[in-house]
Amino acid sequence: MSEFVLKPLGELVRSREPGCGLPGEVFSRPDVYETDVHVFFHKHWIVAGVTADVPEPGDVSVVDIGKASVIIVRDDDENIRAYRNVCRHRGSRLKEAGKSTVGMLVCPYHQWTYDLDGSLRHAKHMGHDFDATCRSLLPVHIKVVGTHIFVCLADEPPADIATLEETMTPRFAPYELQNAKIAFESEIIEDGNWKLVMENNRECYHCEAGHPELTLSFVPESTGASADDMDEEGRKALDAYNKVNAESQSDWESEGYICSPVEALSGDVVTQFRTQRLIIGGNGESQTMDTKVACRKLLGNLTRRDLGDTHLWTHNSWSHVMSDHAMITYIIPLTPEKTLVRTKWLVHADAVEGVDYDLTKLTEVWVATNAQDASLVAINHRGARDPGYIPGPYSPTTETYVDQFVGWYASRLKAHGY
Fold first, then answer.
1. Domain 163-415 falls in which CATH fold?
2. Which is a Pfam family this sequence falls into (predicted)?
3. Domains of the chain by residue range
4. Which ranges of the chain have pLDDT less than 50?
5. How large is the C-alpha radius of gyration of the chain?
């Protein structure tokens, strides 16, 4: 009997049939998981929170990313900083994952004490020759874009985050997202590999059957439907969508709201992202069950409700920003087969629950959608683990972005020597 030999990751990924999914092994092997965390969550820029996680000086948000941990803090000068969650004495964790408020960062082991700017202020019993200036907390690269907090654990972070920043800053500007608060947040641990979570997010092939709440506001024709597969009624609906979309974009752009798609998804791209302003179905205002705004106090100083949905994808997040609220989700892999999906709903900082917005109306579409996606990812993961799984072809119309994501994943592994 011949011995079963595992293929190296690079060889396994390169064995993929063009236009088809990845081999099932990449979703469950521990060595692949460790490589993914190292490459895609320690070497790339990732979304790790929003500015409303740390609204006041002394507010702290700690995010664990594989074996690493990052402290995000707003300092006394209102700057948002990030540090390795490692004491400079003997390496103890300074803070557990989650949020808190501190005056200083104090190691629970030997009480080494750090200012919010990372400098070591107190370390007892270290002798007269001890130089505290050499023992500041190790900084983590950080970039705030709109409200999104991006961090990168690499010594030299990818420089093309500048493209994302230049693209998204003017698109987010009208919403003044740094003057928003978290109305609600949720965490789901999905029973699936992080790549399957992202693949699921990159297509709406499953939306018609899988997301009845979301499809009230998503226009079906905007999700990659092909006229070749449509009857006459469907083609008329597609033509009507294209007409309304063009008119809406012309109207928005005349008032300075940027609409055009920007795709940095393949080729030599390191920091992968996509953005576009899309029309919303029904009443056209927000991703709610009645497609009207859930919060009457609009973001920023906006007065217009029908501004569509400005979305942003990165390789670990998806966001939808509308006139009344923003929904921001990011993921962190926990094991080869479990992924943390964290979602935050943001409203204007001065909005009052029960007066300006109803929490159920604000959240019900994406609460339902996230739960449905968790179930879909779980059955996808279980099937992809099956020895009988042979990856099939992607839809050339509705799964284009999945194919691009997988191609980007393969190219980034190759760039890192796999």
1. Naphthalene 1,2-dioxygenase Alpha Subunit; Chain A, domain 1 (3.90.380)
2. Ring_hydroxyl_A
3. 46-144, 163-415
4. 1-2
5. 23
Q: What Å distances lie between residue 19 and 95, 142, 173, CA to CA? A: 45, 35, 38
Q: Please say whether the beta carbons of 310 and 321 come within 8 A.
A: yes
Q: What is the pLDDT of residue 228?
A: 64
* Residue range 46-144 in CATH 3.40.50.720: no
Cα 160 from Cα 153, distance rounded (Å): 15
Domain 46-144 and domain 163-415, same fold? Reply is no
pLDDT at residue number 1: 42
The C-alpha atoms of residue 153 and residue 169 are separated, in whole angstroms, by: 23
Which of 318, 346, 343, 315 is closest to 161 using CA atoms? 315
The gap from C-alpha 167 to its chain's centroid, in whole angstroms, comes to 17
Per DSSP, what are the bridge partners of residue 76? none
Among 88, 174, 91, which Cα is nearest to 137's?
88
User: Could you read off the pLDDT of 137-175 as tens digits, one per residue?
Assistant: 999 999 999 999 999 999 999 999 999 999 999 999 999
Token pair 């969650």: residue: 85
This prediction's pTM: 0.95
Closest CA to 325 of 348, 343, 303, 342: 348
